[in-house]
Design a protein that fits this description.
218 residues; mainly alpha; 0% strand
Length: 218
Amino acid sequence: MLVLLPLFATYHVGILFRPRAANGADLFTRLVAWLLGRSLSLYLLVLAVLVICWYAYLKSRPGRRALKAAGWPLGLVESLFYALIMGPVAGLVLRKLHLIGTGAAAGDLLSALVLSSGAGFYEELVFRLLLLTGINIFVKKISRPGISRWLSLPLALVVSSVLFSLAHHVGPGAERITSTAFVFRTVLGLFLGVIFLFRGIDRAAWSHFFYDVIVVVS
C-alpha cells in the first residue's frame, strides 16, 4: 500500500488546484468535489482521517511494506505494460460483440493526471480490494463447500466489474450510459480484477492510472 502514496498525494493535492477537473468525472471525484464545495475544512478533515487510517494500517504491516517498496520500480514497468494492452483487449471484445469502439475525449493533461491518480487509487481500492474480495468471501460463506471453489471468485470478479462500469454513469454530470461504454468498462474491470488477483492492489492501481493517462495523451 505504501507504493500507492504518490497516487493518493497527487490526487488530493491536485484537486485543490484543479477543482474543475471534477466536472463529469468519476463518482468518487464528484464526491470529493461536493466536499470541497461544502467546506475546505470538511475536505481536509476527511483527508486527515484517511491519512491516519492509512498510517495505522502501514504500521501494522512493516515487513510487507518494505517488500513492496523495494520492488516498486519494476512494478511500475509491469503496470505500464498492462496499461498498454488493456485498451486493445477491451476493443477486441467490442469488435467480437459487434459494438463500436469507445474513445475518450482529449483533455487538459494536468487535470488528467489528477483524475487518473484518483481513479487508480480509489476505484481499485473500492472495486477490487473491497468489493471483489468481499463478494468472494461472502459467496464462500453462503455456498456449499464443493460449489464455492468454482463459483465465488468468478462471480465476485464479474459483479465487481459490472459495478465498476455502472459507477461511471451514476449521479449528476455522469456520462450517459450506452451498451458500448458499459461493456468496454466492464471488460476493463475484468482485466484490472485479474491483475489484482494475481499481482496485487498496487499493480492494479498503477495500471489503472497509466491506462487513463495514455487514453488522454493519445
